[in-house]
């Protein structure tokens, strides 16, 4: 997974890198350009896909949880 840092105040962005390098870059930029403060519009984003990007995955996850809930309810009713 790659990360990207962008400073909204400076309107500057950097390329994709690992999380530690992005954190280091953010800290260094804050110290050098913003006296250690957090600039407005600062973004540290990941290129990882979100679960909400795949509706089928959401349906499958929901079905598994629903099945688990029904199994638990059935156990409570029947005592087995």
Commentary on this structure:
With 80 residues, this protein is an alpha+beta fold. 49% of the residues lie in helices and 14% in strands. It has two helices and three strands; from the N terminus they run ββαβα. It has helices at 19-33, 55-78, and strands at residues 3-7, 12-13, 43-46. Strands 2-1-3 form a three-stranded antiparallel β-sheet, with helices on one face. The protein is elongated, with a radius of gyration of 22 Å.
Helix content range of the residues, please? 40-55%
Point out poorly predicted stretches: none
Q: Helix count, per DSSP?
A: 2
In N-to-C order, the SSE pattern is: EEHEH
Q: End-to-end distance, in Å?
A: 44 Å
Shape: elongated
Describe the largest sheet.
3 strands, antiparallel
Rg over CA atoms, rounded to whole Å, is 22 Å
Mean pLDDT over the residues: 92
Q: What spatial order of strands do you see in the largest sheet?
A: 2-1-3
Strand content: 5-15%
Secondary-structure map:
Elements: E1 3-7, E2 12-13, H1 19-33, E3 43-46, H2 55-78
Antiparallel strand pairs: 1-2, 1-3
Feature tags:
3 strands; alpha+beta; 80 residues
Brief summary of the model shown:
The protein contains 2 helices and 3 strands; from the N terminus they run ββαβα.
